[in-house]
Each structure stands twice: as structure tokens, then as C-alpha cells.
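idk why but the lab printer keeps eating my pages so im just putting this in chat instead. protein + uracil:
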Amino acid sequence: MIAFILNNMRIDKYLGITGCATRAEAKKLIRSGAVTVNGAVVKSSDAKIDPERDKVIFCGNEVIYRRYTYILMNKPEGVVSATEDGRDRTVIDLLPNDIRKTDLFPCGRLDKNTLGLILITDNGELAHKLLAPKSHVEKKYFFKSKFPLTAEAARQFENGLTLEDGYETKPAKIELSGSGDEGVITLVEGKYHQIKRMLDALGNKITYLERISFGPLTLDESLGRGEWRYLTEEEAAALEAHGIKNENK
Ligand code: URA
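predcted complex ->
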């Protein structure tokens, strides 16, 4: 089934999937003669290619085919990190129909009211490696809290806290800014409602939470809430390398 789809992919879609350009940009560039397939200029966006065999040059650079899809989304509030949900809209629902594949899923979870970077992929093996507790993949969050954090609270946060269910958090990092009621938290784990529960344990409360990085990926500030783009070739390579590095820990 997958092979069938790949062997018959439209060139504009292929350029989109590989992160070369948006589909609309790709159409324009194809018309302008900026794309060759096996040495011949292709000016029609619906020309079909076989990504595994054909050599595609886009604006002078060879396009590297990746087997998997990687999408970086700026998750808005009120949307759940799931593939389907009976009540709420999911991050997958925010993708246009033509790229929605049944095997795309969010890699990890953000709470319904947490904003920011979420990776969507169809690479289950890599997601498994990146999310495995032993991988310790770093995630950074910008937060705001109800009350300023004292130096003692920050120290406790960094050393590890006991949550209400008895779980001992791993050492984390907190960089305070403003008047101490906002800053950046770095975690190497991802327990349910972890940051909210850590602040609760300190008698404080999270009022705003936005993920700004996940492993080697950082939130693309040019993406509005609910917007997405494919990972660039460099980002996809860094992510795959991160999975392999962490697997060997
Ligand atoms: N910690 C939380 O409490 N919520 C998130 O969405 C992510 C980390």
C-alpha cells in the first residue's frame, strides 16, 4: 500500500513533504522551471515521481527522500494531542485532508491548554525511542505562574520534588525571569501534567505553559497557533540522529 502511494507521488506534494517548499510555493517554482526530474525540467505540478528512484533537483539542490513524515506544529489551546477524540479537536484534525494519513500521530502529549511545539510523525520506532523514559530527551517550556518562585522553590524544583502521588521527579532546570513568576523549565521526562503538578507541590500554580523545544527541535516563531510545517532536511536528520544517540544510552 505505502509503496503504491510513494511510486505515484505528485511532484508538488513530494516537494512539500520533503520540506523544500509549501505546496503553493512548489507549484510556482515548478512552473518557473526550477525543478528537474532525472535531468529533465518538469513544469507540471501533477507530474508523478517515484521518490525512491527518481533524482529530483529543486533550485539547484538534490532533494533527499525520507521514508517518514515529520511535521512541526504550533499547538493552539483547546486542542488535544491525540489522533482522534469523541469530543475535542485533535492536532491531527488541524492538518489538511490531503496530507492526513491514518498512521500520523503526535509524538508525546501536551495538555489541552498547553501551547507550542508538538511533533507529528508516522515513524513509530523513532517516537518510541524519543519518548522512552531512559532517553531523557530534553523538553523546554516557557511558563508563567500565579506567584513568584522563591530561590528555595527553584532549588527544590531543580533537585527533584515529590509529587502528590509519591513520584520523585528527576532533577530539572528552571531559569526565572521577570519578577520570578515566569521563565523556562527544562525537563528530561514527561509525566502526566508534570509541570503543573511540580508547581502544585510548591504551593504555586501554572497559569501559562508553552513548549518551546523538544530534543533538537525548537518552536518555529513564524508559525501561528495551529499552523504547521514539515521539518527541514536538517531538522529531520537531527531528530533521527537524536533517536539513535538516545537509544544507545
Ligand atoms: N507539563 C504539564 O503540566 N503539561 C504539559 O502539557 C506538559 C508538561
